[in-house]
Amino acid sequence: MKTIIIIPCHNEEKNISKVVFDSLKYSPHVLVVDDGSTDKTPQNAKESGATILKHIINLGKGAAAKTGCDYAYEKGFDSVILIDGDGQHDPCEIPRFVEQLNQADIVFGYRKFSKNMPFVFRFGNQLINLVTKVLYGLNLKDTQNGYRAFKVNIYRKIRWKAQDYSMESEMIANVGRYKLNHKEVPIQTIYSDNYKGTTIIDGIKIVLNMFLWRLN
Asked: SS3 letters for the chain?
């Protein structure tokens, strides 16, 4: 499969070069979607060998990921790997996602919950996992993990409207709605910034949205 690795990011000048460099080991097609960064993120990413798409202003992770995936769809790629640009995801695990895509439409990475994961993240994730199972019949171990892979031929079905972190849950809701074949792979995660990612307010919005998506 012709695979593109998409990295949505905002103000990650310290991490993006390594993420791009390591990702290029697994595909020559690495796309960084710079979501209105005010630092040297786009310059560093370009110097490291990535293709760059830029938002003039910060729109949110969901918007950046959608810009990248729209590009992949339009350019005729077969599969997409979504990976965060903050260094929490190790690109060396990309081959495991690609391998599982031979048997599934979409592959979700899941973290092993431990004391290294901030408590508020653990609690919120487990709550959203439960809501996902009840509303959509998907028993996933880690619904808020952004490390994912999917075949581009399902993109129109899973394409999300959310511009923020709830895009990950909306994608899952669409997977459940269309009963798409999915797999999970365990990954290692480095928590270098306790304040990155889904906040308590984000979690509340996600749960409310999941009920609204189910009603619609």
From this structure: CCEEEEEEECCCCCCHHHHHHHHCCCCCCEEEEEECCCCCHHHHHHHCCCEEEEECCCCCHHHHHHHHHHHHHHCCCCEEEECCCCCCECHHHHHHHHHHHCCCCEEEEEECCCCCCCHHHHHHHHHHHHHHHHHHCCCCCCCCCCCEEEEHHHHHHHCCCCCCCCHHHHHHHHHHHCCCCEEEEEECECCCCCCCCCCHHHHHHHHHHHHHHHHC
Reading the chain (216 residues) residue by residue, the pLDDT tens digits are: 899 999 999 999 999 999 999 999 999 999 999 999 999 999 999 999 999 999 999 999 999 999 999 999 999 999 999 999 999 999 999 999 999 999 999 999 998 766 666 666 666 777 888 888 888 888 888 888 899 999 999 999 999 999 988 899 999 999 999 999 999 999 987 665 544 556 667 777 777 877 888 877
Maximum Cα–Cα distance for the chain, whole Å? 46
Kindly calculate the radius of gyration of the chain based on its CA atoms and give it in whole angstroms: 16
Domain spans in the chain, listed from the N-terminal domain onward: 3-215
| 209 contacts 169 by C-beta, under 8 angstroms | yes
Tell me the two tokens of residue 187. Answer: 């990954």
CATH number for the domain running over 3-215: 3.90.550.10
